[in-house]
Amino acid sequence: RQEKLSLSMLDEFLENTKTLSPAERLVFDLYVKGHTAKESAEILCLSINTIKTHNKRIYTKLNVTSREELLLYISMLKEIGTEI
After folding, report:
1. Global pTM?
2. Please, what's the b/e burial string for 24-33 (b: 16 or more CB within 10 A of its CB; e: otherwise)?
3. Which terminus of the chain, N or C, has fewer Cβ atoms within 10 Å?
């Protein structure tokens, strides 16, 4: 039962990634690759405040409350071999 619940949550998370704007998706993809917010800002030539704004929108759209939760979903999807 717990497994079904977490799979439906993963499905929802994955579905919600499709709602990210192109800019949010760039930031999200860098997180998937293991980059920090600071590194993402440098890679994308954006200010850390812009990254923080993207983070808020990413968290809202993906229904997560923290970077740790975001990374947990990402690692769970990678574990089951899902393309993110």
Report:
1. 0.90
2. beebbebbbe
3. N
